[in-house]
Amino acid sequence: MSRLIVVSNRVSVPQAMGAAGAQGGLAVALGAALRENRGIWFGWSGKETDSFTGHLDMQRNFGVTTATIDLEPQDVDEYYNGYANRTLWPLFHYRIDLTEYDRSFGESYVRVNQRFAESVIPLIEPEDLVWVHDYHLLPLGSMLREKGVTNRIGLFLHIPWPPTRLFVSLPNHEQLVASMLHYDLIGFQTEEWLDSFIHYIKKEMGLKVAKDGTIEYQSRRIVARAFPIGIDYDEFLEASRSADAIGAYDRLKNSLGGNRKMLIGVDRLDYSKGLGERFDSFDRFLTDNPDMAKDVVLLQIAPPSRGDVSSYQLIRHDLERKAGHINGAHADVAWVPIRYVNRGYPRSELAGFYRAADIGLVTPLRDGMNLVAKEYVAAQDEEDPGVLILSRFAGAAPQMQDAVLVNPHSPEEVSDAIKQALAMPLEERRRRHQALLASVRDEDVVRWREHFVEALQGKGADDHSTAGN
Ligand code: GDG
Q: Domain check: are 374 and 294 in the same one?
């Protein structure tokens, strides 16, 4: 079995199963792959250094070897906060109004990708598979090739690929895509993002793409395919049965008072997640349904992220204002409609919160996949499950057609969906939940990475359908 070299912007140092930390399903799944295939997870440590040395900090924790480098403050500012999160992130989420096109960001992006390439090369052995993750590192494959790496190299993009007419607003877009055509395999979350990429390749580069996603470019063959990511179902089930989860469930249920129903939202504080629109929709529901209003509570957990980027500071401010306004307008002495919480919780407690919620409100404006929708389904009581309300613009929507699908831009539509979910008969809730659970359980993160790794090895290209996408 080939060794795996995983490269991502940040490395998540493995923790013991059930540790109280906030290790996500992706970290768990990649950790498992690295243990099975042996291998190394390489990336930025999250730390800064005055002058870049390329020194590798190698560690081994819980059977996984990690290798990290420190970056200079200018790198963090212009590559991470700059090109990655002020340029590519908003552009790839269709927000050209928030996209900053600054030449120095692009230069730093190239410099840091070069630093990643130089630092990871000494770790790569001849038979290794190299798996690069996400928008921070799109040109890394071409830089590894320039330095003589002939191994199979794959890229998986966790976020959407934007429509061509938006993408071409990026200066040097041709160079960026040409650099991606040095990978052997490029994976997207859904057929929709794959189609946008293929559209660009055909229209702007005039290349031919075979039916199976094979692109021919400068005598190389690159395969582009959809690999929808899932959650680590077994890990999440274990977390949801833990004493911490049960304690969190009891605490939350007891705090609601009477037979009050609860809606839950769990999102990094990010404009792509549609939090402002969600608050507006809940406001609409409260206004239009005064007889039901005091029987519901919305719990919104939103740990802050990317606080150094101004658009994130603005949305945080905007949401505080909105939550305060809605609570001020509707609250009563013994009831507040929105519990807005700007902090993270351990995964096991989160699982208990999901289970306590009658409705999972997952309404991103644009999302590569969205794992919260899948976690919400996995955490439900099968006998008496809650209802998932899901944005049709989440990458998860094609696989989760049994959710109540909504347009998150329409407060009326989301308000109606909340009403429908609150009144939904048990039989219909069970039927929808069983169908959703089957896909969440079967199309899990283990299957995702097995399919990706097999395809990277050049095996089984025709074996797995991405049906439903
Ligand atoms: C990117 C793409 C794609 C959230 N709050 C807490 C907490 N979380 C966890 C959730 C979930 C994860 O963070 C968020 O995953 P998402 O998929 O919703 O979103 P992104 O962070 O934007 O991830 C996305 C994903 O990559 C994977 O490919 O699905 O589309 O944007 O697991 O549970 N975890 C804990 N406490 C919190 O308070 N422990």
A: yes
